[in-house]
């Protein structure tokens, strides 16, 4: 039996078309811009404290608030992806994110800045899972880890660019807290353009039948509870790992390096950016290794183990801050490179949007709570340039969360190494049949 012709929507059309690399590039641009804006508060945290008198809790809340919409909308966003397709949801999310970035840049009074971050949060969760689902529908399951790793690599470039922006955009930071936010808004606009092109390109090439949105006019809420144990274990890792990494690196790391390690803003930004610089280069490598050799649950365990080690090195030794940056950089290269494609392998394509939506919901609950708790602990301990010892309780909080993440991934590894696993520990997933075969 001959394979489906190009353009008819057959399974081989997308996964063998050179256009899939263009789609991947557009997805990478869109996520680059979203990640840049998502992290925008960290480099100006000190400026907001000095120039506008914000407390640690207020600064933490500007990052935490972007998680709030996803507590209400994440599962709904996943169901929308399954119903209408990821490209359409990506476009909607990018437009909303641009509005939120502009409101944040206007930023006065505090309530308007907070509202802007809230609006951006509606976009931030939806656009990530819609792009992950979109990439998964253009690449075969045997190559999804590398494709997702390349996608995440450009996301890390966005975070790296933001952290190094106090150096390459120093004139904007010298002008105060607001010009850097307008730069973020402009980049978010560029992400909207990429989303428009992504939608146009995706609409001209139908996905395989097994990956198409549901034909029913109703959203299937009951499907949320039909995932097995491996999915819930990997969900736990998603939530706990993010609750450690992002609040620390996005909100508090630069300030911590300034006040505890005595670095300047530029030095602290460069040290913090090293985590994302490592991910830019190492994430595709780990994705390629996962596609080639398997052992995904084992690799996740190794990457997660590095997280508590990082905090030990940072807080209990006199080693250069770059040592902890290297450790966390390897961890942040390894875990996301494996966890997102592994999730797509645990869930059937028709339910992938719902699965990612549930993850995003609980992940954002963790992000919101972790940011708020860390800021509260820092305020209670009087953390600041005059009392750097006050940051210790916050570091212990992140350390305990990282140990909880390690417990979750150990449970996943045990299950995936047993008879009920999904093949995450096996080498390459069998590729789809070639055109011309039965």
Describe the structure.
The protein is mainly alpha-helical. The protein has a single domain (18-213, 226-416), classed as Growth Hormone, Chain: A (Up-down Bundle). The protein has helices at residues 11-16, 19-38, 45-52, 56-64, 68-84, 86-106, 110-136, 144-168, 170-174, 178-203, 229-259, 265-293, 296-316, 321-346, 352-380, 392-416. Helix 2 (19-38) crosses helix 8. The chain is globular. The chain starts with 10 loop residues before the first helix and ends in a 22-residue tail after the last helix.
Condensed summary:
The chain is an all-alpha fold and 438 residues long. The chain has helices at residues 11-16, 19-38, 45-52, 56-64, 68-84, 86-106, 110-136, 144-168, 170-174, 178-203, 229-259, 265-293, 296-316, 321-346, 352-380, 392-416.
Secondary structure blueprint with pairings:
Elements: H1 11-16, H2 19-38, H3 45-52, H4 56-64, H5 68-84, H6 86-106, H7 110-136, H8 144-168, H9 170-174, H10 178-203, H11 229-259, H12 265-293, H13 296-316, H14 321-346, H15 352-380, H16 392-416
């Amino acid at each position: 039996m001959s394979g489906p012709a190009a353009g008819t929507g057959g399974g081989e059309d997308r996964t063998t078309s050179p256009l899939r690399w263009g789609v991947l590039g557009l997805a990478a641009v869109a996520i680059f811009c979203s990640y840049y804006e998502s992290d925008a508060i960290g480099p100006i945290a000190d400026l907001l404290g000095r120039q506008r008198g914000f407390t640690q809790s207020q600064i933490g809340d500007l990052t935490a608030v972007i998680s709030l919409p996803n507590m209400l909308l994440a599962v709904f966003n996943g169901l929308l992806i399954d119903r209408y397709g990821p490209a359409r949801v990506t476009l909607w999310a990018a437009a909303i994110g641009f509005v939120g970035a502009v409101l944040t840049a206007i930023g006065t009074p505090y309530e308007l800045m907070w509202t802007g971050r809230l609006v951006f949060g509606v976009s931030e969760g939806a656009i990530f899972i819609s792009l992950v689902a979109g990439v998964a529908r253009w690449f075969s399951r045997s190559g999804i880890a590398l494709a997702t790793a390349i996608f995440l690599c450009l996301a890390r470039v966005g975070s790296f660019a933001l952290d190094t922006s106090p150096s390459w955009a120093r004139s904007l930071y010298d002008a105060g807290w607001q010009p850097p936010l307008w730069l973020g808004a402009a980049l978010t606009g560029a992400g909207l353009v990429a989303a428009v092109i992504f939608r146009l390109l995706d609409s001209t090439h139908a996905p395989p039948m097994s990956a198409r949105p549901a034909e029913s006019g109703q959203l299937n809420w009951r499907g949320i509870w039909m995932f097995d144990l491996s999915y819930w274990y990997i969900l736990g890792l998603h939530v706990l790992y993010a609750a450690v990494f992002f609040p620390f690196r996005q909100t508090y790391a630069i300030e911590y390096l300034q006040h505890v390690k005595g670095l300047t803003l530029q030095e602290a930004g460069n040290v913090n950016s090293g985590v994302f610089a490592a991910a830019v280069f190492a994430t595709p490598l780990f994705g390629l290794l996962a596609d080639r050799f398997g052992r995904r649950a084992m690799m996740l365990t190794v990457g997660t183990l590095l997280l508590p080690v990082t905090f030990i090195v940072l807080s209990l030794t006199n080693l250069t801050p770059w040592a902890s940056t290297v450790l966390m950089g390897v961890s942040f290269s390894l875990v996301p490179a494996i966890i997102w494609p592994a999730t797509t392998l645990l869930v059937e394509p028709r339910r992938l949007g719902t699965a990612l939506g549930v993850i995003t919901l609980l992940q954002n609950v963790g992000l919101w709570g972790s940011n708020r708790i860390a800021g509260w602990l820092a305020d209670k301990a009087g953390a600041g340039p005059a009392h750097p010892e006050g940051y210790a309780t916050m570091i212990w909080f992140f350390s305990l969360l990282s140990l909880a993440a390690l417990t979750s991934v150990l449970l996943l590894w045990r299950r995936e190494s047993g008879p009920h696993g999904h093949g995450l520990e096996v080498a390459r997933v069998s590729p789809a049949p070639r055109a011309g075969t039965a």
